[in-house]
Write a structure and sequence with these properties.
The protein is an alpha+beta fold. The protein has three helices and five strands, in the order E-E-E-E-E-H-H-H.
């Protein structure tokens, strides 16, 4: 499954002429493209889909969504070890 997940921008930088960010998703840090939202600043929350920030949102909404995704196990599914998740689905210990 591929979700649009909220995350907090930790750092903004340029890479090969493209505005990028280090984004924290409830403890998981990923590099995200800010091409659609280049004016995004450190500390802001964005919704990320397939590596692109596609929308800004407020902190409360971001935290609520992350908590819901975590309770549902979707963050592990989205950011966890894919091989481990596949093994669990097949009933095999990884």
């Amino acid at each position: 499954m591929c979700l649009a997940v909220p995350g907090r921008v930790l750092e903004v930088f340029e890479e090969s002429g493209t505005t990028m960010a280090a984004v924290d998703f409830g403890g998981v840090r990923k590099k995200v493209c800010l091409a659609y939202l280049p004016e995004t600043g450190v500390g802001e929350y964005v919704i990320v889909h397939v590596g692109f920030a596609i929308q800004r949102l407020d902190e409360e909404s971001a935290r609520e969504t992350l908590a819901t995704f975590e309770r549902m196990g979707l963050l592990e599914e989205e950011f966890g070890d894919g091989f481990e998740a596949a093994a669990r689905q097949k009933g095999v210990e990884a």
